[in-house]
Amino acid sequence: MGFAVVCNGRLKDERRAMIFEQVVTGGCLSYLVGCPRTLAGAIIDPENSQIDRYKALAGSHGLNIRYLIDTHTHADHFSASKQLAPMFAATIVMHQSSPAPHASLRLDDDDMLIVGDLRMRALHTPGHTRDSMCLVVEDRVFTGDTLLIGGTGRTDLPTGDPDQLYESLFDKLLALDQTLLVYPAHDYKGRSHSSLAVEIAENPRLQKRDRADFTRMMRELNLTAPMHLTEALRTNMTGGQTVSQMLAEAAAEVPFIGLSELNDRLVSRPNDLLVLDVREESAFRAGHIRGARHLPRGQLELRVNEEIPDPTLRIVVYCEFGKISTLAAATLRRLGYMRATAVDGGMKAWREGGFPIEA
Q1: How far apart are CA 189 and CA 280, in angstroms?
Q2: 241 falls in which pLDDT band (50, 70, 90)?
């Protein structure tokens, strides 16, 4: 069995010299693997807050990332595969059962990806989700959420099935070479890896070797739902955008103005700009920035022509917390109001800053 060591901050397999990086994001674990001879690489279960990290790691190793692999449809975080694919000119890989339309290469049981000298064998292991798979690479197995360190994936989320998980574990995964190292997609106790031998011996859920006992245990776990469940499933299944992605894109399209700077302008040159409040009417009536005009975000596109006939105006947009106003300012710029600006903060920050309010 190869021995993993830390060298210059990088985990490498001494015997096979497989380039290997584990990226930790809270309890989420993702992986970069590569062939040192050909510099071909792959990223497993990329997480969208680590995009710059993956680019930096690939660059530091000189890797050409060929594949972006999601071991299953994640319900507790957002996959970065769709965002990374054009950056690396890489192929998005999932199991044949995945609903994600952006996965261009779909694997069946025992299909293999060739990454330079590395061979990545896919094992279909449904149970946590219908499209769950594990990847056997050299001396290790990337288990996704099928097998965790000291646990297993839950089966109470959409497409989960405890009977399928039992078969995936006891009839398939645990039948592999027990010396294989286990690298899961999650661990919330700071552990980097385990082995099949250790999990067979010590994992409490794997001690329920009778099917009925195991499935009963899984059905009675009564776990809380993951944060961002609906949004994660929606975006990972469809390739749609998260709210944070939409906000980030909007923020990149518009400039901002600070609260003090806006107040100074309203005092000295109030006619130089149009202040636009995009909150609901009740919030506007309760208190707004001096001289602001009210145009709710939900009516912006429908009323903007009659409300703001001059596209050359400097428009300063605000909302309650500074997020909806960023989207609104980006929309105005797309509509041709090229001097639209968003307030850095919102009405809440304006109040807390002690700036004047009209009611």
Answers
A1: 44
A2: confident
- Rounded CA gap, 30 and 27, in Å? 10
**Rounded (5°) CA angle 199-203-209:** 100
**For position 344, what pLDDT does the model report?**
94
Superfamily of chain region 4-240: Ribonuclease Z/Hydroxyacylglutathione hydrolase-like (3.60.15.10)
Please, which contacts does 122-126 make with residues 24 or more away whose CB atoms are closer than 8 Å?
122/95, 123/172, 123/173, 124/95, 124/96, 124/97, 124/168, 125/165, 125/168, 125/169, 125/172, 125/173, 126/97, 126/159, 126/161, 126/164, 126/165, 126/168
- CA distances 302 to 305, 308, 323, Å, are 8, 11, 20
244-358: CATH homologous superfamily? Answer: Rhodanese-like domain (3.40.250.10)
Q: Which amino acid is at 75?
A: A
Tokens 């901002």 belong to which residue?
A: 256
What's the pLDDT at 227?
A: 67
Predicted TM-score (pTM) of the model is: 0.71
Nearest Cα to Cα of residue 152 among 164, 140, 138? 164
Amino acid in the structure at residue 110: D
Residue 59 has pLDDT above 50, yes or no: yes
Q: What is the CA radius of gyration of the chain?
A: 26
Q: Are 135 and 176 in contact (CB under 8 A)?
A: no
- Tokens representing 145 are 């959420």
